[in-house]
Amino acid sequence: MQNIYKYLKYAIGGEKRTEREHDIKVFKKSEELALKYGIEYDPKIFVPDDLEMADAAFEAGIELLHSVGIFCRSTQRIIDIDEEDILKALNITNPLEIGRLKEKVVVPQRYPMVSFPPTIIGGPMGGSVSEENFLYINLSSVQENVVQGIYSGAMKQFGGEYIHPKSPLEMLAVLKAARNERLATKIAGREGLALMGPSTPTLTTSSLLVSSDELYSSADPQEVYMDDLKVDYEILSKCIYHQEHGNHYISGQVPVFGGPCIGSPEGLAIIDVAETLQSKVLAHSSIHASGAVHADTGSSSAGEIMWASNLSSLAISRNMNYYTARYYWNSAGICTDMMFYETAAQAIGDTVCGRNMLLGPTGRLGSVPDHSSGLESRFMGEMAQMATHLTLSEANTLVAKIYAKYADRLKSPPEGKPFEKCYNIRSEYDMEPTEEYLALYRKISYEIMGDIPGEPV
Description:
GO terms for molecular function: monomethylamine methyltransferase activity. The chain has 457 residues and is of the alpha/beta class.
């Protein structure tokens, strides 16, 4: 708690700054640092293999965080982050176990091109989910053996009524969602499987309501969402609560390339590193999840985003001991070739660049209900396993081929089909993907496997 108290004092008495001034300062400093450290984007590269540039991006991230600080929305003041605190945090290792009973998983410490895959967390991870399909969508992920946890979506109705944010109805919906997530693990015979979230709450009280041994236990990483190098009192309060109760928690951020403080892929990579450092030094979270998206498409699968995210992942996995995850916000809907291609391109890059955990994926940018399924999570896990055999340059060659199959569709992606049209659901104990969906999954899998360099996996 010492660091939290120290930084709370900065939040109360630190330098006054408007949010707009902070955004401009982050933008200018990140662009300046890209030039200073020689970080340069190449649109032909998706998986960088320049390790010196990755290390430079890490140094730039440290300098960015130390020089601009973190903006506290609640007080309109700046929390200064001491460089000494950043450097002391780099090599602190806190082993991460998630889940309980026979579903307990030790999240591996990963580095670039290691031979074992990242942890696979299925589910819509914050995307919109209808009340009627909520249990089934979670079940579809839980029943996949490759899935080691579920990150559920945001329930949009309760009792058929639209949930107004920050209303008492939300609290009932959050309880129902969490109970359905836990029920899904019991129905599938995987009680104790890690839950991540919850994703429905807009109220802090709703999040803490389900923090219990029955629902989100200390072994289920609970969500603390933050914006670009910003916090507020609610975020800090959640961190204090979870620390006091010994809970694992995941800090999530979705930086927007083309947003108010990110103007280039180089700037995005540096800010992504700085946000990860912020999560470890200030929030003390167990794991940091990034899900950078492109303002033009809203997706995480655009070329600039993958380059920046992969460079950031290389930088972090080479230079600090910390667990990182990545959200997959795909443009296309499920049951489309493009959804599979988007997932494959990202999973391959994340795996070879040392990411510890993959989350999702969700289709239609998470904004259209019910575009997530266990088959998509299975595919993500299989692509990650396959990528453990690749070098950085081999991964880049493969990702370039995959990206060419969907790049021109990012702004007008295929809509696909909602979950209930992709699965045959006879009961919660008897459901599987449709033959059409399975046929497409097999086709894309075989196609990508045929492009793998060297011997078939």
